[in-house]
Specification:
Length: 72
């Protein structure tokens, strides 16, 4: 290989590294927004689970009451 080819490889390597670093910087800038978005979804999921648990507890209490009424 001639010196020109080695130089071109160095330039391409440097350009690829700069592009990769640029992509990483862009990703790191987007992480806080993504984290907030994920936290929002976690909050919604917790709310749904809590509501479902309340419904299950209500049905269990209703079933127990009905069983007690039938027994008495």
């Amino acid at each position: 290989m001639g010196s020109q080819s080695l130089n071109q490889m160095g330039v391409l390597k440097g350009r690829n590294q700069a592009m990769t670093e640029g992509k990483l910087i862009n990703i790191s800038k987007q992480l806080p927004r993504a984290q907030k978005h994920i936290q929002k979804h976690i909050g919604v999921a917790k709310s749904i689970i809590s509501q479902e648990a309340s419904v299950i507890e209500a049905w269990e209490a209703y079933d127990m009451r009905k069983a007690l009424e039938a027994w008495l």
